[in-house]
Design a protein that fits this description.
CATH topology: Aminopeptidase
Strand content: 15-25%
Shape: globular
Number of strands: 5
CATH superfamily: Gcn5-related N-acetyltransferase (GNAT)
Strand order of the largest sheet: 1-2-3-4-5
Structural class: alpha+beta
Helix content: 25-40%
CATH architecture: 3-Layer(aba) Sandwich
CATH class: Alpha Beta
Low-confidence stretches: none
Oligomer: single chain
């Protein structure tokens, strides 16, 4: 009889060692991140704005990640915004993304949020198909443009 599979736990990754362990998976989604130290530093900065990183983990190994934050705006009210959702390429199509989204829905509901919101690239048809299967609807387009980087700005707070 084969050994039973160890359970997959959903854990908030808070300490530096956990974040470094998550880096190879996050780099699949964010290849512009040059190294684990930069990733940890950015997560720490974003955490000051409410960012949390939820990991699907098994035996200490990170299999999939969801980076999210609670936000509020006039269009959605209070909502959970999913910044990042990614699974290790060898672990895709095993329900990890669905489990993470379901957990984020529970977290958001517990916080009094009315919606779960995320963005995806227009060219990312595989992700879009997954999101439709998870009950998400395409309700708008996200536009962006680069801004010139200034050393300081009169309204910038330290």
């Amino acid at each position: 009889m084969p050994d039973p599979q160890p359970p997959i736990e959903l854990l908030h990754l808070d300490d530096d060692a956990q974040l470094r362990a998550a880096f190879p998976v996050m780099r699949e989604l964010r290849p512009q991140l040059p190294d684990a130290a930069t990733f940890v530093a950015r997560v720490r900065r974003q955490a000051r704005q409410g960012y949390r990183l939820l990991g699907a983990c098994c035996d200490g190994q990170v299999l999939a990640l969801a980076g999210y934050r609670e936000l509020e705006n006039l269009i959605h009210g209070r909502f959970i915004y999913v910044d990042d959702l990614v699974a290790d390429p060898q672990r895709r199509s095993r329900g990890l993304g669905a489990r993470l989204l379901d957990e984020l829905a529970l977290i958001g509901g517990g916080l009094g949020c009315q919606r779960l919101v995320l963005d995806t690239a227009l060219a990312n048809s595989l992700a879009q198909r997954f999101y439709f299967r998870q009950g998400l609807l395409s309700t708008g387009l996200h536009f962006s443009r680069p801004l010139p980087v200034a050393a300081t700005h009169p309204t910038q707070e330290n």
